[in-house]
Design goal:
single chain, about 500 residues, alpha/beta, Rossmann fold, N-(1-d-carboxylethyl)-l-norvaline Dehydrogenase, domain 2, Single alpha-helices involved in coiled-coils or other helix-helix interfaces, 3 domains, three-stranded antiparallel β-sheet, 12 strands, about 55% helix
Length: about 500
């Protein structure tokens, strides 16, 4: 009698860069995987890689050539993880799994960068056919392989089943220090610590939080690039000199994954020309849409996230390469100033503080956006918990995030990070250099939209009376849009009949 092959724990569909690495991560943690991809070569590749990496004789990943075969090789109720492009491909796979015989108590987990509103609609659409659950993933291919940050949301029953799996494969943080416990090789033991995976909330909330994570990521990257640009153009520093500065900064309050990799990029020489690689890379930045989604959502929710939006605009402006080449020959700017070594060192210190303060503002904008969206959607979110799972595994992982966790521990109703005693104190301490850095860059013609928008937000937020009073007067003049008065109860509307003699004031009921 032939011995029956044991059934697999998890079905996995989509073996691109992220999918393949998540599947291998699951296998590292003791789960047996039934794998499928429309491109059968990808299935062959992951099985070949698994054979090279594993020490055991029994295969950890089993190839499947169809959705029906995949279901037949899984324990019931089925758990299937998708790593496919957002949009129509997700629905295509779901419909094919329905045709293959998926059941009402089976769980499908979408781990792609889906738009959060699509997630809400999918949960409704597939209700009764199977349980549609989502988990937003951050960390790139290395994070996916050795420990990502995971933002799951949806049916609580599904989370109860998935929780031990996600806790096993996620990045870990030392509970005492809050520092990441990194695993970067299959030869290293699995780390033990606080998992960077926590239940976010109802359907859509996880992908919304990941979307804002990416918006903050856009801002963080742009701010680092602006500091680099000033050092390069205004302070006449080489890429390797700037890399050295970034490495120094990475030992302090600016410690982060993005700062670390920025230094590595700047140190790299082009293998073909021997020149700094950064000088060979074309200055046209791409984007996949999540930063844009964040900026659009901020406008829709009415949450000012100007630094995030500016970072999206900066990428858009970078794509206008031909126009910029022409404009560079026609449009005049200030003559570059020669700086002494003492001035250079002073400017580097000012840039450090500008980057730090602008970073605080970018995170403040991002968390405020999540808070306002959560209020609209009635999501009961744990903001300290969100900051915790970003401390390791994700692209914006940084020591800085422990301070955000601490802020929400002090006040879980905190409306804006700038109102926390720690962050308000930090900005007060460093804002002079922040302003000096922006002024110097502006006088030298170096664009610093990220720094500037962050400072404008800070100054606007701390201003009790903004010129919106004049703006409301303008709106009332040309469009009879009405206004409120400071000496009357909130909500009472007034209008001046501007075209009538004496311009009488009328109360609007």
């Amino acid at each position: 009698m032939t011995e029956q092959t044991p059934l697999c724990d998890i079905g996995f569909i989509g073996l691109g860069v992220m999918g393949k690495n998540i599947a291998l991560n699951l296998a590292d943690n003791g789960y047996k995987i039934a794998a499928f991809d429309l491109d059968h070569q990808k299935v062959d590749e992951i099985i070949a890689q698994d054979k090279i990496e594993r020490k055991e004789q029994d295969p950890r990943i089993v190839a499947c050539s169809s959705y029906t075969e995949l279901l037949s090789k899984l324990t019931a109720p089925h758990l299937i993880i998708l790593s496919v492009p957002a949009g129509a491909p997700v629905d295509d796979v779901c419909h094919k799994l329905i045709d293959a015989g998926i059941c009402a108590d089976d769980i499908i987990v979408d781990t792609g960068n889906s738009l959060w509103t699509d997630t809400i609609e999918r949960e409704k659409q597939y209700h009764g056919k199977f349980i549609f659950f989502t988990t937003a993933v951050s960390g790139g291919e290395v994070g996916a392989r050795f420990g990502p940050s995971l933002m799951p949301s949806g049916d609580p029953y599904a989370w109860a089943r998935i929780e031990p799996i996600w806790h096993a494969i996620s990045a870990k943080v030392c509970p005492e220090t809050g520092k990441a416990l990194e695993r970067t090789s299959i030869d290293q033991p699995l780390p033990q610590g606080e998992p960077c995976a926590t239940y976010i909330g109802p359907a859509g909330s996880g992908h919304y939080v990941k979307m804002v994570h990416n918006g903050i990521e856009y801002a963080d990257m742009q701010l680092i690039c602006e500091a680099y640009h000033v050092m390069r153009e205004s302070l006449s520093m080489t890429p390797k000199q700037i890399a050295s500065v970034f490495k120094t900064w990475n030992k302090g309050v600016l410690n982060s994954y993005l700062m670390e990799i920025s230094a590595e990029v700047l140190e790299q020489d082009d293998p073909e020309t021997g020149k700094p690689l950064v000088d060979i890379i074309l200055d046209k930045a791409g984007q996949k849409g999540t930063g844009l989604w964040t900026a659009v959502s901020a406008l829709e929710v009415g949450s000012p996230a100007a630094t995030i939006a500016q970072s999206v605009f900066a990428r858009s402006l970078s794509t206008l390469k031909h126009a910029r080449i022409r404009a560079a020959k026609l449009l005049e700017g200030p003559e570059p100033q020669v700086v002494s070594e003492e001035q250079r060192l002073q400017s580097i210190e000012q840039l450090h503080d500008a980057l730090y303060c602008s970073k605080i503002v970018a995170y403040a904008q991002g968390f405020q956006l999540i808070k306002l969206a959560a209020r609209q959607q009635k999501w009961p979110l744990d903001f300290g918990g969100i900051a915790k799972i970003w401390r390791a595994g994700c692209i914006i992982r940084a020591a800085f995030l422990q301070k955000i966790t601490d802020a929400y521990d002090r006040d879980d109703e905190l409306g804006n990070l700038l109102l926390d005693s720690y962050f308000s104190g930090e900005v007060a301490k460093y804002q002079h250099n922040w302003r000096q850095a922006i002024a110097s860059a502006t006088l030298n013609g170096i664009p610093c939209g990220g720094f500037s928008s962050a400072l404008a937000y800070y100054d606007s937020y701390r201003t009790e009376t903004l010129p919106a009073n004049l703006l409301q007067g303008q709106r009332d003049y040309f469009g009879a849009h009405t206004f409120e008065r400071i000496d009357q109860p909130a909500g009472k509307k007034f209008h001046v009949k501007w075209s009538e003699p004496g311009r009488p004031l009328v109360k609007i009921d």
